[in-house]
Amino acid sequence: MANERRVTAITRLIVFLGLAALAVFIYFKFLKNADWDAVTQDVKEVVHDADSLIHDENNKDIPVNRLYEFHPASQAEDVIEHGFFSLEYSEKDEQAKWVAYQISVDNLNKDRVDRTDDFRPDSKIGSGSALPTDYRGSGYDRGHLCPAADMAFSRDAMSTTFLMSNMSPQHRSFNRGVWKELEEQVRDWARAYDNLYVVTGPYLRKRENIKIGKNNKISVPKGYYKALLALGKGEHKAVAFYIPNARQTKPLDEFSMTIDSLESMTGLDFFPQLPDKQEAKLESEIMYNYWMYDADRYEMRLTDWNYD
User: Fold this and answer.
1) pLDDT value at position 50?
2) pLDDT tens, 48-92?
3) Among residues 71, 144, 171, 236, which one is catalytic?
4) Looking at residue 111, what is its pLDDT?
5) pTM score
6) Does the pLDDT value for residue 161 go beyond 90?
7) How far apart are CA 302 and CA 44, in angstroms?
8) Catalytic-residue membership of 55
9) 63, burial (CB in 10 Å: exposed 0-12, middle 13-18, buried 19+)
10) DSSP secondary structure, the chain, as one string
11) Where are the domains of the chain?
12) Which CATH number fits domain 65-305: 3.90.280.10, 3.40.50.300, 3.40.190.10, 3.40.570.10?
């Protein structure tokens, strides 16, 4: 009996040593020089892909958390990526045709940084962007397209919004009135629906006979638009807005429209990567009960924010 136990113990030891030798061989043969960063990235991408589809009986296979998939359809050779937002630049207008970005409730809930106010040219614009001095004495605000407050979760993100490619000449009463109200309302919706994909920009198809700037000639848009897409947390939702570049007294809901209507107006194709069936449904209707407005904020605009 003792001999049997001894043989069993020796056998186990031999098996253990054999497995250990095999492990050492595999390590030096295959794993020692492996690119672990690449392996880790591959794993992350697999996990991301697994998490990036929403499946429910009404909305199937719509990708989320992939900002690049929600750019408008573009003929531009290069879409300018700034990490926290993307844009297509119009050289003849010296401003972005559109800016696309995501607002998440997680980022909105982080500690807020102070405004950086570091207006500067965008070095990624090959032809050169507008300059901060181009707006001097024009009577127009350097109006943000991607709002600074949407990116206040980090100093780097905040600072990027002050690139001049993200600026457009806005009437003071528009920028600090109805546009401010809409930006704040959009953040409220992002908190309600966890994430919003936003495409915003100037309406440049019908320009005023006005250009500003000494070094660069910047077109003054007739108005501005936003296209919003909320995925998940129940039924998917979309809505668009167009607001003339002037002081406004009407409530925000009177500026709302379908994505289809905004596409007809601007000539842009918003959210083209959505599955066709879902795109057709989302872009042809407004689910008004999902887009509720803050009446107190509207009153504040009328009494405190509007400028003549």
Assistant:
1) 35
2) 333 333 333 334 444 434 555 578 886 666 789 998 999 999 999
3) 144
4) 96
5) 0.78
6) yes
7) 48
8) no
9) middle
10) -HHHHHHHHHHHHHHHHHHHHHHHHHIIIIITT--HHHHHHHHHHHHHHHHSEEE-SSSEEEE-S-GGGGSPP---S--EE-SSEEEEEETTTTEEEEEEEEEEHHHHTSPPPPP----B--TT-TT----GGGGTTSSEEEEESS-GGGGTTSHHHHHHTTBGGGEEEEEHHIIIIIHHHHHHHHHHHHHHHSEEEEEEEEE-SS--S-EE-SSS-EE--SEEEEEEEE-SSSS-EEEEEEEESS---S-GGGGEE-HHHHHHHH----STTS-HHHHHHHHT---GGGS---HHHHHHIIIII---
11) 2-34, 65-305
12) 3.40.570.10
